[in-house]
Amino acid sequence: MIFNVKRIQMLMVLMVVWFAQTASAKVKVVATVPQFAWMVDAIGGEYVETRYLATPTQDPHYVDARPSFIPYLNKADMLVLAGLQLEAGWLPSLIQNARNTKINVGTVGYVDASTVIQMKGIAMGLNQPVTRALGDLHPGGNPHYYFDPYSMRAIIPFLVERLSTIDPEHALYYKESASELDARLTMLIEKYQPQLKGLKVVGYHLSFQNLFNTFGIENPINVEPFPGIPPSPKHIAKVSLLLKNKGADGLLAEVYYPKKIIQTVAQIGQATLILVPPGQKKQDIVNWFESILKQLAKLKIAKGVS
Predict the structure, then answer these.
(1) Which CATH superfamily is domain 198-305 in?
(2) What is the pLDDT of residue 15?
């Protein structure tokens, strides 16, 4: 049998090109905060490629709109954001400069998760007019709902719908993965709700209202007197005294807020300090939630012992 060497070589080249194209056919997703990227990873698996702009150690209110972000956004098939004005100070200019019609407002690739949160009545609102005197509040609701597994569970169908529209070939995979993720989050919530109900926790920023609501945790006070307004020595003393007098069981804070202030409050208040774990680049979102809930559950155990 005589082989046509040139024909075989051409076939091999075509196969290499085909495999390269297949490997690069992943849905490219950019998220504003890590938690959305982790959610998409859980649903999309090997068929998605995710990046996030605000790192776990960076305040998402104040992200530098770095030019290095623009190539990611330019090539993105989907952009997932928290909305509710969380990214209002830095994201619009990046979208404009990216010149990618796939992720413009109103397109399939522009995924504002807060639209689902608001529709389901989950996001925390206010029963009073919002003024600057109340600090850096978001009139539409609390944009930090991504700290709450119940709120994030609500956006799963939205992410599936958008991924399936962009990549219909793997729609069944997205649906099945989403079902598994939903079940795991449901089990997590059911596991920790009875353990955490009645706990009293101080926050630094107004970040954990959705989380507290889901698990029946009381939030008597925060280190910031109003969102975005640094605490005065008088307010720090007030929060510390409340903790010391067992008016709260512990302090929960993100790592990007002033470490010295947080540690001072915890030390004077003789309280356990829980810092939200930053997670890994490719983080299992359910395990990340549980790492926070486990630490909160320890507060409840300590409270029961005392």
Answers:
(1) Nitrogenase molybdenum iron protein domain (3.40.50.1980)
(2) 52
